[in-house]
Amino acid sequence: MTVEKTVKQTTFNFGKSLGTAQAILAKQRRRLWQFVCLLLFEPTSCLLCQVETRAEANQQDSRQDHLPLCQAIDKPALLARGAKLTRAARATLCMECMEFFCTLTEVKTTLIGDDDSPTMPCFASGFYSGPLQEAIYQIKYLKRPELANALGFALLPPTVALLKSLTDVDTDKIVVVPVPLHKSKVKERGFNQAEELARSVAHLLNAKVDSSSLKRVRATRPQFGLSRGERRRNLDGAFVAASGLATKNVLLVDDVLTSGATIYECAAAVSAAGGTVLGAITLARAKWQKRGQPEESTVVPAISIVI
Ligand SMILES: [Zn+2]
After folding, report:
1. Is 38's pLDDT higher than 90?
2. With a threshold of 0.70, does the pTM exceed it?
3. How much distance in Å is there from the Cα of 129 to the middle of ligand 1?
4. Which residues surround ligand 1, an ion (CB under 5 A)?
5. Which terminus of the chain has fewer Cβ atoms in its 10 Å neighbourhood, N or C?
6. 97 C-alpha vs ligand 1 centroid, how far in Å?
7. In a 10 Å sphere around its CB, with 0-12 CB exposed, 13-18 middle and 19+ buried, how is residue 210 labelled?
8. What is the per-residue pLDDT for 305?
């Protein structure tokens, strides 16, 4: 082999190796780009309605959500925390579902109690119907705590409404207490939906959640279909609060207000332990007939409708 031939062969092999290396690099770059595209543009499903959506299509600025209500209370930190929860929800819910929950700014306020007992206010994001009813069904019966977390932003309006109702209250002493489930129910479901929602309320208020001081010590049968007296007997002695709640300003949180009897019994237990109940926040409230209807046709005689 001549020297000239050897040089030619070496150049050819070097060129071939260079070409192969470039091809490998190009392939790697293509794979990297495909991976980035997958991360950025992969179709995702809405947590609530399961409609396929694209995360990037749902990233519009959400700082204006709930703004009128928040401006009314002049609490910029609360607004910022609410916006943070809303932005997080946008990554998991489709635009249609987001639009529904963002328009829930007309808080449903109810006074729980009756003529011969003290009343307490309960603030709900909306009525128990449509997407709210569907969401609560999925959280509880399809066992989806992640949906409860995603919907935490919808608790901003009732939280603001509750704060607006308070006068001369030390908000630093607020403790958020979820309505407890009996331990057998927690074991069956795997979580307490009220506790998941209470975390969002506590985040909004920059307060602590206390999920151990109020306990449901007796399993109760469902309240649905029971008369007023039967409801009270069913819940009698079902809740016990620890002395740790004494001197605390307690805010009760539940997923849905139905008869109001459960939250009222929780409030009574907290009061018996020396705590002060500021009110309750729920994601939804059942639609009841207004006070003044004949008692047999009034579904919740213990509740008077304020709004
Ligand atoms: Zn959806």
Report:
1. no
2. yes
3. 16
4. 46, 48-49, 94, 97
5. N
6. 4
7. buried
8. 30
